Amino acid sequence: MRPHFWADTSEAQCVWGLDLRNVETEFTLVGVNSALDEFPGLAAQKRTESEVLATEYGRHLARSLVL
User: Fold this and answer.
1) CB-based contact 1:49 (threshold 8 Å)
2) Distance between CA 53 and CA 17 in Å, rounded?
3) Per-residue tens of pLDDT for the chain, all 67 residues
4) What are the residue ranges spanned by the domains of the chain?
């Protein structure tokens, strides 16, 4: 399952016309919440997937600003 994302309909979009997208990552409390400490591999995978998706969104935003 890919990380969750949602489009931002806040002031950034309404006022500035920016197409902002946010990425939410699951299992971010591994190492903090002992109930989740048995999932370090899954947490690392989710973080990597989220970073890739965030990079894609950042590039999309950068291209929209340049054009």
Assistant:
1) no
2) 21
3) 556 555 555 666 666 677 778 888 889 999 999 999 999 999 999 999 999 999 998 998 888 887 6
4) 4-66
Provide CB contacts within 8 A for 13, sequence distance 6+: 7, 19, 20
Only one residue has tokens 């990380």, namely 3
pTM of structure: 0.71
* C-beta pairs of 22-29 under 8 Å, 24+ apart in sequence: 23/50, 23/53, 23/54, 23/57, 24/50, 25/49, 25/50
| Encoded tokens for 64 | 């929209």
